[in-house]
Amino acid sequence: MAFASLTLSAQQIDMSLDKVTVRKALEHLQREYNYSVNVRSDEIDIDRVVSVKSQGATLTSVLNQIFAGQDVEYSINGTSVSVKAKKAVAPVKPASRQITGVVVDEESMPLAGAAILEKGTNNGVIADLDGKYTITPTTASPVLVFSFFGYGDEEIAVGKSSVVDAKLTPQSLSLDDVVVVGYGTMTRRDITSAVSSFKPKPSERREVLSVDQMLQGRVAGVNITTASGIPGASSRVSIRGIGSLNAGNEPLYVIDGVILSTTSGDTGAYGAGESMSGLATVNPSDIESIEVLKDAASAAIYGSRATNGVIIITTKSGKKGAPKVAVDASVTMGQQPRTHTLELASGDLLIEVFNEGIDNYNRQFGQNIERFINPMPGKPAYDWLGSVLRTSWSHNITASISGGTDNTKYYVSGTYKHTEGTAVDNDMNQYSLKANVSGKVKPWLSFGVNTMLSYSKNSRVASGYSGHNVIKAAVEQYPWHEPFLPNGDWATSKNILVNNNALQAIKESDVWIKTYRALSSAFLEFHIIPGLNFKTNLGEDYQSLEEHVYFTAKHASGYPTEDNPMGGRLTDARVNRVSLLWDNTLSYDKSFDMGLNLGAVLGHSMQIYESSTATQTGLGFPSASFDVNAVAATFEDVSSSKSAYALQSFFGRVNLNYKNRYVGTFTVRTDGSSKFAPEHRWGWFPSASLGWNINEEQWWNSEDISLKVRASVGATGNQGGIGAYAYQALASGGINYGGQNGLGLTTAGNRDLKWETAIQENVGIDASFWKGALSVTVDLFNKDTQNLLYQKPTMVTTGYTSQMCNIGAMNNKGIEIALAANAGKNHFRWHADFNISFIRNKLTKLLDDNEIITPSGFHGLKVGEEVGSFYMVKMLGIYQHDEDVPEYLYENEGVRAGDVIYEDISGPDGVPDGKIDANDRQFVGSANPKFSGGFNNTFSWKGLELGVFLTYSYGQQVYEYWTGGLRLGNGQWPQLRSVCENRWTGPGTTNTTPRAIYGQTWNSTKFVNTRFLHDASYLRIRSVSLGYNFPSRLLQKAKIDALRIYFQADNLYVFTPWPYLDPEVSVSSNAATYGYDWLNPGQPRTFSLGFNIKF
């Protein structure tokens, strides 16, 4: 790096530093003052140990002390300062011309104090506060080198140009980058654990349904799947594999120091649609950076909630200077891709298959069932899927203002976002307001207030595991039916399996959820003596939800019945949740003799969480427009509940750094949770990590290469996913007898419950080459989780179905690789990020080690197998001839040529018996990928930027739970065209799809089998963007700091063997039952046009 740049402020300077490095002295100035200083680090020793004592001194006086003993000279231009070694300067030829320009960052904001050097000479200047510079070249063919601290150098051949602008990009994994960790910050140089950072750049921002999707494919070891394309729906996030069976696998989210509640934003009412993500209310535009704490050494400071990793979100804050206004706006068109995979058989083809199945049945069983007659021959098939899907239009606008003085800084933003889903009548409106104010009241007292307020209304459609799932209902309609009769009434389907048509299910319901949220924190920080600070921080997360699920008398769930003669059904629910957090920390930083630096934190934390729910379901409404329970004829259910729990914690951390070569971090935390009995309430979670910056050794002679090795070990805990009163036996109301209200025991307590505890070891390497042009990070980890929490099935005679217990242990191990590269010449730049993770999971203990637990009809848990493994009968092919069929199956099951071959592996005594039953189930695959990752590329030339972002996942499987009837099942279901065309019709025709047969379940639903289990690996073109940044010199005439326009396509295409809408789908987010599809809407393909402008 040619220059290192730091930002300071011009005023009289008080400083008292004893035996610190030049670098540390300048970092101290950076925190307290506001100059822009560039140091020629390849000529000046910035690791030299000095002492500085000044009172009301000038800048020059302080710099003289900092650079004492070094022959340097200063160049001061306003508030910009350049420091370089004194050298004899060759005579400069008379100037033939001047070169001018502007130096900006990747968001086109000026880089005040950037250094501009004519290559091969000592001729250099410093950019002013607006990033402008003027230089007189001294050579015939000048090449300018632009540099700024923390950014990669840019070399541009001037040629005949008189105006040369430069855009600098941040260095990948710069050692001086500040990283947010638990209860503080550290430079990357001091990090000795597995911490990954993501700072969203304008070219990398994409349309997301929830803020967690911003990390998808960005960070090694973090696997994020978007199981539904419904606006606001939850994603599944796992860090370093599966962390638990039942106690939750979601990481801990911390936003500006406040623990974020990600509890699903609804009551789970039947037919209400997809569960809403607790992160859907967080505005992605307000996010400055995201840090992911992946190993125990980095996450142990959060103790009992950190087994699944920690995601720290830092929102934007103000900076000193005049007010800056920014506006981001976009409009987005969306479509549901891959709908061709659900093409239904035409009427004629469907009748052919129906009658073929009847003929096969009659011939085999000697029956005379009448053949099916097409009720509307020649009628074109109605596009049922098209009737419930649409082209969606969404728009988003965010406006912000920021700025500040020496004593106060502020950032305020407001956002309105309207998101339409690709399903008819599915949309979400969001409003949010954020304010972040910080400053100094006195030299010894700082303060900060951070508030996010949001409101959203999500008009929902049925999806997920619901009988009214809009897409599933659409593909279960006969092709000759239409939504309306000639008189305009709804045409209720004659298919007995579907009570109403798909469009009717949407239009005759009114389902929405309103969410009000306030996420706030406030702190005071007392600067007791130099290096010693006390900080008290109070945070709250308040949510109020209103849920409305209304079905008219024309909806299948609201049809008039004997108990509800008027028809109509309405469920209203109110949910209030509040989390209060109070943290107190004492921190100390001290630099000692011989280059030893100490940082320490001691802290205490208290959290209280309360939740209340009130629900009422009314029946019988005089009119469809009377959707209030006040006019309900009767009430089916009225219920309410309350819960609360508390957590108290004590923690400490010590960081040691010796001459930037040897670094160590030691952490301990103890948590006490009210969820556990007093005798098991407290858990201890220690960690230790060490790092060696090899390139800081005196014998290291390469300035182009940096290398650090690190190792860590630690313990973290988990209490998520279990109830607030998990150790206590609970009674509930509504257990009535003889017309009298009563209580009944409904939950079995367990005073022996203990924390889940994970012991994790990590070894890592961080390396960079060619002064940061290429960086590589490799981590290997091993994680053993003990005392797994799970709802263990119990004997019926106990009166309970299950009891929460500690039942076993599991292991996760893997390797993570992350690469980042920067290259370019003149105005062309290429930046690339690539990451890949290989993770393996295995159960190592489970009750009786030979026992198999089946958490669902198609999953199994067994020692030696992965959590999320599929456990079912295996399909081997299709019987081509009757004589191939085993005698028992031929005589007793009616199996014939054209039927599915299942593998017979075991009878009751463990020996194959010629039968197919539950004894023949086996482990056949997993919902977990073998490896996954992402690959991002950004190409820029002058003001143009092209971004291409890919994500991939390999080896996972998904079970299609919804298609038993639509794939030549036993009834008169509509059928997929591809299945009908590929069906078995005689020996040798196919070995994958069975014959059509009426009234038989052997080929479809008799056994859960691998016919419906598919490889769901994928390579997805996640995002392609093309943007243009207008030249700063043009914008400054209009008093505009930056202007960028862009076009972006998201979810453009996916390469996958999965045969349906989206390979990432899953109804369940539970690790033990993940990976089955109920035909959720997939992620939309979107096209966005937008702009970012800054004043």
Question: How does this structure look, described?
Answer:
It is built from ten helices and 57 strands. It is mainly β and 1095 residues long. The protein has three domains: 4-167, Sandwich (Immunoglobulin-like); 178-318, Ferric Hydroxamate Uptake Protein, Chain A, domain 1 (Beta Complex), CATH 2.170.130; 327-346 and 381-699 and 707-873 and 927-964 and 1005-1094, Maltoporin, Chain A (Beta Barrel), CATH 2.40.170.20. The strands form 13 sheets. The protein has a 22-stranded antiparallel barrel. The longest helix is centred in the first third of the chain and has 19 residues, at 347-365.
Query: Rg, please?
Result: 33 Å
Name the structural class. Answer: mainly beta
Provide the CATH superfamily of the largest domain.
TonB-dependent receptor, beta-barrel domain
Any guess at the CATH architecture of the largest domain?
Beta Barrel
Under CATH, the topology of the largest domain can be stated as: Maltoporin, Chain A
The overall pLDDT average reads: 86
| Whole-number tally of structural domains | 3
Number of helical regions: 10
Q: How many extended strands?
A: 57
Shape: globular
Largest sheet: 22 strands, antiparallel, barrel
Which parts are unreliable, with pLDDT below 50 for 5 consecutive residues or more? 1-10, 88-95, 494-498
Spell out the blueprint of helices and strands.
Layout: E1 4-7, E2 13-21, H1 22-32, E3 36-39, E4 49-57, H2 59-66, E5 72-77, E6 80-85, E7 99-104, E8 115-118, E9 124-126, E10 132-135, E11 143-147, E12 154-157, E13 166-167, E14 178-181, E15 184-187, E16 195-198, E17 222-226, E18 235-239, E19 252-255, E20 258-259, E21 287-293, H3 296-299, E22 310-315, E23 321-335, H4 347-365, H5 384-388, E24 392-404, E25 408-420, E26 427-442, E27 445-459, H6 470-474, H7 502-507, E28 509-529, E29 532-551, E30 569-591, E31 596-619, E32 634-658, E33 662-673, E34 682-693, E35 706-718, E36 730-733, E37 743-747, E38 756-769, E39 774-786, E40 789-793, E41 802-806, E42 808-825, E43 828-846, E44 853-856, E45 859-861, E46 869-872, E47 875-878, H8 887-893, E48 900-902, E49 922-926, E50 931-941, E51 944-954, E52 957-960, H9 977-981, E53 1013-1015, E54 1018-1029, H10 1032-1035, E55 1042-1055, E56 1076-1077, E57 1085-1094
Parallel strand pairs: 3-6, 7-13, 19-22, 52-56
Antiparallel strand pairs: 1-3, 2-4, 5-6, 7-10, 8-9, 8-11, 11-12, 14-15, 16-21, 17-18, 19-20, 21-22, 23-24, 23-57, 24-25, 25-26, 26-27, 27-28, 28-29, 29-30, 30-31, 31-32, 32-33, 33-34, 34-35, 35-38, 36-37, 38-39, 39-42, 40-41, 42-43, 43-50, 44-45, 45-46, 46-49, 47-48, 50-51, 51-54, 52-53, 54-55, ...
